[in-house]
Each structure stands twice: as C-alpha cells, then as structure tokens.
Amino acid sequence: MSLHVLIAEPNTQKADLFVRALQNCGFHVDVVTSAIACFQWLQESSADVIILSTDLVWGGSDGVLAQMRQGDLPRVPVVLLTAGTERPEPAVCHVLASPFRLDDLIRVTQWAACHSDPNSKQLATPVHPTSVRRPAEG
What we know:
Blueprint: E1 4-8, H1 12-24, E2 28-32, H2 35-44, E3 49-53, H3 60-70, E4 78-82, E5 92-97, H4 102-114, E6 131-132
Helix pairs in contact: 1-4, 2-3
C-alpha cells in the first residue's frame, strides 16, 4: 500500500514537478491549488502527509494550519514550502525554504509519513533540523 500525499500548491508547474517526483517514489499524490480546496479535500479524504505551500490563496497555509490546530481538520504531518524564514508551528514537521532540491522534498515527505503516529494528537518532531535550504542547482 502506497502512502498518500496531498500537495497544496497554487503553482501548477511546481505541483506537476512534485507529483512526478513523488509518484516515481511510489507515493499516491493528489493536488489542490487553494486553501478552500485543501479544507474540502481533507474533510472528504485522508492523507499521510500534506505538502503545504505558503503561497496558497483563499485562506492560505495559515488558515489550513489554524483549522488543524482547532480540530476542524484532521491532524496530518505537514511539510511547509516557503520562500522565507517562517517559523514552524507544532503541526509542521518540516520547513523547506526555496530553493530546494526535489530529493529534499522526497526525503522529508518520507520522514514525515513514517515518523508520525496517526493515533496520537502529537505529531512527530524531527530529530534533525526542520529547515533545509540549499542553493538551486543549475
């Protein structure tokens, strides 16, 4: 059984890259492009990990995380994609700051999926730094 990942990313070109990379590693992947779509998807489906962009519109990543904190959405490990230096909150397992490599995204997604107990109210806390930032290749 493959792990299920929800990508919440408004940039469809980025989302397509993430989907291909994760599917090549055996993940089942769905994509939403707004916070409202993310809310609706999480109320109707389940994921092992959410890859959440801080660029989301219509409620933003802050809105999704607030709904998880309040218990209105299921607690799911979150990998937060950011362009800046946002400080993670308890629902965030990892922060990936742009630019990052696809293998970093795959690695932290695998880690988040495998180190969180779905029966626990507390999500896994990484044992290594929560932020990965590397220069873009190319």
